[in-house]
Amino acid sequence: MEATKDLSVELTTMGAGKHHIGDFLPPQELEKFMEKYTAAKEGRSADITDYKENKLTETNLGFKMLQKMGWSEGEGLGTSREGVINPINHGAVNNSAAGLGNEKPDNVSAGDDEFDCYRKRMMLAYRFRPNPLNNPRRAYY
Fold first, then answer.
1. Which of 24, 32, 85, 124 is the most exposed place for a label (fewest CB within 10 A)?
2. Do 109 and 40 contact (CB within 8 A), yes or no?
3. Where along the chain do its domains lie?
4. 131 neighbors 2 (Cβ within 8 angstroms)
5. Cβ–Cβ contacts within 10 Å for residue 125, how many?
6. Contact, 117 vs 16, CB < 8 A?
7. C-alpha distances in angstroms, 36 versus 99, 106, 108?
8. How far apart are CA 81 and CA 74, in angstroms?
9. Contact present, 30 and 110 (Cβ < 8 Å)
10. Could you report the per-residue pLDDT of 104-127, keeping only the tens digit for each?
11. What three-state secondary structure class fits 16?
12. Is 129 within 8 Å of 12 (Cβ atoms)?
């Protein structure tokens, strides 16, 4: 409950003097959304993993062990070097109990026009709006 209160206070102070719902969208979330949008327009899959920021270096023990076994960076795992190249993103697990076929309304598709992109971005920003009364919320979108 304290963590929720602290987050509420932080979001409220962040939103002081702002009047548009899009102003509440954090820059990291906006970058992820825009990457999804440009990837959908270009017909490729979005690269929203945190691999680039948390890339293993030669100081990591696991990295050293793989190198001793003959692996080099950019190769796949396994004897035929056709395995996983990039590590699995820890945020890839879907823990929602929404059910099969339920899609979040802020997911961008290739057929979206400018207005659809704007609408979905505002729906995403709605999650980060301030909550000055510290009322519990459910995930609306």
1. 85
2. yes
3. 2-48+56-86+107-126
4. no
5. 20
6. no
7. 23, 10, 6
8. 10
9. no
10. 767 888 888 888 989 899 888 888
11. coil
12. no
